[in-house]
From TrEMBL:
Keywords: Oxidoreductase. InterPro entries: D-isomer_2-hydroxyacid_DH, D-isomer_2_OHA_DH_cat_dom, D-isomer_DH_NAD-bd, NAD(P)-bd_dom_sf. The keyword Iron does not apply. Gene3D superfamilies: NAD(P)-binding Rossmann-like Domain (3.40.50.720). Residues 9-319 form the D-isomer specific 2-hydroxyacid dehydrogenase catalytic domain. This is Bifunctional glyoxylate/hydroxypyruvate reductase B. Residues 112-293 form the D-isomer specific 2-hydroxyacid dehydrogenase NAD-binding domain. GO terms for cellular component: cytosol. One of its GO terms (molecular function) is NAD binding. It is an enzyme of class 1 (oxidoreductase). Its EC number is 1.1.1.79, 1.1.1.81. It comes from Paenibacillus foliorum. Belongs to the D-isomer specific 2-hydroxyacid dehydrogenase family.
Length: 331
């Protein structure tokens, strides 16, 4: 391709050399080479010249789009795309792409680490050992006991690809009983993992581990609220690796403080990074992580490469994972 006919694209962070050289074959790239992510004010200033934008977790809204007359494609290096303001993008005819499939197993592994850490109190007891509190006869025998994961009931809310990867681990690895709720039934998951479809309420009532994996959309904002925590068993654990806003965080804090539920494992928060003053950080029955569901070296590389391929594909009319709500923009 002749250099002058290559589309101009803006990359909001440093990427591995191989990904940049792939992009350079097809595009004229400007890569932010400062620390971290290209700051929003600079992005808003620069975006007017570009047809393509590579991001993750950057609000793609009217504020940005009105400064971007040439923009045709935004490629997000993430599976979730709640940062795409769909109506604004539709109005401007800007395609959005994301990175499904490549992170499913990695996120499912992380969900299991939250299940195991919260039930067996791994982080809490690690701190006890390191603080020198492991002393013979110093406490009641059951003080550090946890809950079994194997043969317990897991309830998955949102049985998408990641939900199914969690189901596989739960049933084949830990002999768990599996119930789920999803917008539509999943016959393959029922067949493969013996997953039993339930109403949301019944998933909450029956499960020892409630795992929330539903994507954040206007319909799922604060999907789990006070009344839902009240339906859960007092011995149950709540695991969230979707988005913080799918839960009423204040209601969850109260449920954890007053013993409505036993504990939680959280990779996501209403505000990220989480404020140091958030009461969740003071609770010993809560395991917290800094939104690292997909954060392994290989998976983040694969996501960035797929996002680069999506950017090129969508700009050139070739294959790309365009998000469902914007597929109508693809000719
Ligand atoms: C995703 O890809 O949506 C993960 O949450 C990482 O952002």
């Amino acid at each position: 391709m002749d250099v002058s006919s290559k589309p101009k694209v803006l990359i909001n962070r440093k990427l591995p050399e191989a990904i940049i050289s792939y992009l350079n074959e097809h595009c004229e790239c400007t890569v932010w080479d400062g620390e971290g992510l290209l700051p929003r004010p600079q992005l808003l200033e620069m975006i007017k010249d570009y047809e393509g934008l590579f991001v993750n977790n950057e609000q793609i809204n009217a504020e940005l789009l009105e400064r971007a007359p040439k923009l045709r494609v935004v490629s997000s290096s993430s599976v979730g795309y709640n940062h795409f303001h769909i109506e604004d993008m539709k109005a401007r005819g800007v395609i959005g792409t994301h990175t499904p499939y490549v992170l499913d197993d990695t996120v499912a592994d992380l969900v299991f680490s939250l299940i195991l850490s919260s039930a067996r109190r791994v982080a809490e007891l690690d701190a006890q050992v390191k603080q020198g509190n492991w002393k013979r006869g110093a406490r009641k025998e059951d003080e550090w006991f946890g809950m079994d994961v194997h043969h317990a009931t897991i309830g998955i809310i949102g049985m998408g690809r990641i939900g199914e990867a969690i189901a596989k681990r739960a049933v084949h690895g830990f002999d768990m009983n599996l119930v789920y709720n999803n917008r539509s039934r999943k016959p393959e998951a029922e067949e493969r993992y013996g997953a039993q479809f339930r109403s949301l309420e019944d998933v909450l009532k029956e499960s020892d581990f409630v795992v929330l994996m539903t994507p954040l959309t206007p319909e799922t904002e604060h999907y789990i609220r006070k009344e839902h925590f009240e339906m859960m068993k007092p011995t149950a654990f709540f695991i969230n690796a979707s988005r913080g806003q799918t839960v009423d965080e204040q209601a969850m804090i109260e449920a954890l403080q007053n013993g409505t539920i036993r504990g939680a494992g959280l990779d996501v928060f209403d505000q990220e990074p989480v404020s140091p003053d958030n009461p969740l950080l003071k609770l010993s029955n809560v395991v917290t992580l800094p939104h690292i569901g997909s954060a392994t070296t290989k998976t983040r590389y694969d996501m960035a490469m797929l996002a680069a391929q999506n950017l090129v594909g969508a700009l050139t009319g070739d294959k790309a994972y365009v998000v469902q709500e914007l597929k109508e923009l693809v000719k």
